[in-house]
Amino acid sequence: MEAALRSMFQSLAKNASANKLAKKYGLHFGARRFVAGETIANAIECVKALNAKKIAATLDHLGEFVFTEEEAKQSADMCLLTLDHIYLAKVESHLSVKLTSLGLDINKELCIDNMRAILDRAKKYHNFVRIDMEDFLHCEAAIEIYEELRQKYDNVGLVIQAYLYRTEEDMKRLHQIKANLRLVKGAYKESPNVAFPEKSDVDKNFCKIIKMHLLNENYTAIATHDEKIIDFAKDLVSEHHIAADMFEFQMLYGICVDLQNKLVDEGYKVRVYVPYGVDWFGYFMRRLAERPANIWFVVKNLFK
Ligand SMILES: Cc1cc2nc3c(=O)[nH]c(=O)nc-3n(C[C@H](O)[C@H](O)[C@H](O)COP(=O)(O)OP(=O)(O)OC[C@H]3O[C@@H](n4cnc5c(N)ncnc54)[C@H](O)[C@@H]3O)c2cc1C
What we know:
Bound molecules: flavin-adenine dinucleotide
Number of strands: 8
Radius of gyration: 18 Å
């Protein structure tokens, strides 16, 4: 039952018609728990509230299904605007971006040009941009683009997913350019030909790559709500005397808030990923897929 629900939510996340419909009707079904709001003003308010609790943020302007150069350009403009607002509001927040929303499926060069414009703007504000990792089909292109951008920019990071078989080799490759990585388990529906189907294997690989990247003296964002993985990372940094400015914990907006606060109280750097925008449906479906028990949360909100 749980696997079927997971698969259904992962498929819905990629369904263009469902996304279009959701966009038209606004933030509903309890999505507000996971999404800061539809406007940049909502997003900045949310970041201010996090910063007041000593939690940093990374803002993501949600955007899926970009099919034209014009749409990719609009998406890049929203990223620039988000950077402007972060600067003007003097809040502590990075920016997270998705390469498909910047035109990766249309033209790789267009996507790189959009990234360059975003990184130049971020550099002007001494800010940092992280490239989210999408499904397996976009993984190699994302790494290649990151390698190219890294030649000129030091304010850019990438995400790597523990569930992919290729990840260990990718980590060795990315160590060559001292990549700043966010490590995650992985949120997309992938075939067992490319990704570990068993959660225990994903968790094992997650610990392995956290250790690899930290001991290779690279900046590591450990992005998880899994307390066992967090405890593993805490023990590792303590045992190997890893400096506090070489790693941080990251979590998603609205998930495990008590754990976020507890880590801050313990003195760790914590950053929360804050998505906003009208294109919230795909993101929301991926959050439901991670924890199908969240479906009850949706049902409750249907009757509100
Ligand atoms: C900051 C951040 C950025 C991310 N960026 C990417 C990315 O670029 N690409 C990508 O593929 N994935 C990304 N992810 C998602 C990630 O891949 C996982 O799907 C997600 O974090 C759930 O896995 P987990 O590590 O928390 O462990 P799990 O074992 O899935 O969860 C551990 C515990 O956390 C809680 N939990 C986890 N998810 C939820 C949820 N949705 N609702 C309620 N409780 C929950 C539950 O208590 C669960 O028992 C990101 C995650 C974070 C935290």
